[in-house]
Amino acid sequence: MIDVRDKRRKHLDSLDDQQAEQTVPSESSGSVSIKEITKQWLKANGYDGLYNCDGCGCGLADFMPCGFPNENECVAAHKRDDGFFYKGKPND
Questions:
Q1: Residues 50-84, buried b or exposed e (16+ Cβ, 10 A)?
Q2: What is residue 55's predicted lDDT score, i.e. its pLDDT?
Q3: How far is Cα 8 from Cα 83, in angstroms, rounded to an integer?
Q4: pLDDT digit string (tens) for 21-41?
Q5: Euclidean distance between CA atoms 64 and 88, whole angstroms
Q6: pLDDT at 71
Q7: CB distance 39 to 63 below 8 Å
């Protein structure tokens, strides 16, 4: 049996960022996902994505492609000109 959450995740993954944001419930509905809350916080605070000490990094355009980020090791990051993600803000 296919889990409804899996179907929704596959649907959201198939959309571009603008389309996906339009399908995510608003904060007033009280049902915003942790993924969306994290993404909004990163944007509001000037970050480009997440970095993990294992060398993994993801940007806001392809956010959390793993589906289960490590809550202890994934940290706010910025993207440098070399295309890689580094923890902290550009001037940290």
A1: bbbeeeebbbbeebbeeeebeeeebbbbbbeeeee
A2: 81
A3: 30
A4: 554 455 556 688 889 999 999
A5: 17
A6: 86
A7: yes
Neighbour tally for 87: CB within 10 Å: 16
Per-domain residue ranges for the chain?
36-92
Q: Which residues of the chain are under the pLDDT cut of 70? A: 1-30, 92
Q: What is the pLDDT of residue 1?
A: 45
33 has which bridge partners?
A: none
Q: How far is CA 30 from the centre of its chain?
A: 19
Tokens 């060398």: give the residue: 55
Task: Look up residue 63 and give its two tokens.
Answer: 């956010």
Q: Which long-range contacts (CB under 8 A, 24 or more apart) does 9-13 make?
A: 9/67
Burial class (CB in 10 A: 0-12, 13-18, 19+), 40: middle
